[in-house]
Amino acid sequence: MGLTACSPGADEDEEPGDEVVEVEAEEEKVELVYVEWDSEIASTYVVAEIIENELGYEVDLMSVTLTALYESLALGDRDGMVAGWLPLQEKYYEEHSDDIVNLGPNFTGTLEGLVVPEYVPISSIDELGEHTDEFGGQIIGIEPDAGIMDVTREAMEQYEALEEYELVTGSDHTMTTTLRNAFEEEEWIIVTGWTPHWKFFSWDLKYLADPRGIYTEEGEIATIVREGLEDDMPEVYNFLDNFYWGEEEIGQVMLWIVEEDMTPENAAGRFLQENPDLVEEWLEDIDQQ
């Protein structure tokens, strides 16, 4: 906690050294990091809303690259995040695992793989080589350093069916915009996909079978914090340790943001209002300010 000291002008009758010193404590601030993926925007803003309104801390959110997500916690520059996709981000996690604290999953049952519309009449990655022209020879991806992009590059090396394909980099937003446009025209499209994500609530999509097992069958999203947070802010640490939700909950927040054009702050506030029992469960046995 930072302290600000100020010395007002001394009264004429006061002797030197008798000045009155006012010390004002700064409001404690929790600094969270996240990656600009829709699922992480939803979870981070819900967590921030609770820390600010239920625990009484100021919250500062920073969108960062995937590399900086782990680096900032390992260096102690930021307090925590709820965006640790494991084992998808294993290389980043392992690099910094000695200097961060993993509180365990806040979501279990993540999936990732290559995704196509239900109207596309194929079911396996092995079939893609026969339909390169229909797909325009492209797999629509996201940020180049994302874990799913690393795994997709590996899949392109392992599957002969993907030899003629190009992996297009972009972002979560550009991927879903391209997907939306394809659905409007009933065009064939392949995207890098993962669960949880709102696109599965908005469109009929399917994962392609992965007979070589390149993609993770099932994983988790972990809550990870800096060392020392438990001692510095025990209420925040314990809340983050308790935080856990399912696909319906995170999907609802994502849909409010994307489909109803709500701000992340408003969507998080609405979620808290509509799910008081879950919020109470997250805050169980935690001293609130």
Task: Tell me what you see in this structure.
Residues 29-274 form the ABC-type glycine betaine transport system substrate-binding domain. Residues 10-21 have a biased composition (Acidic residues). Its main location: membrane. Residues 1-21 are annotated as: Disordered. Helix content is 37%, strand content 23%. It has helices at 38-53, 66-74, 90-96, 147-158, 172-185, 199-202, 229-232, 234-242, 247-259, 264-274, 276-282, and strands spanning 3-6, 22-25, 29-34, 58-63, 80-86, 100-117, 138-140, 166-168, 191-195, 205-207, 219-226. The protein is built from 11 helices and 11 strands. It is of the alpha+beta class and 289 residues long. The chain is globular. Helix 1 (38-53) packs across helix 9, helix 1 (38-53) crosses helix 10 and helix 9 crosses helix 10 (264-274). Residues 1-25 have low confidence and may be disordered.
Q: Which descriptors would you attach to this protein?
A:
single chain; 289 residues; alpha+beta; D-Maltodextrin-Binding Protein, domain 2; 2 domains; five-stranded antiparallel beta sheet; disordered N terminus
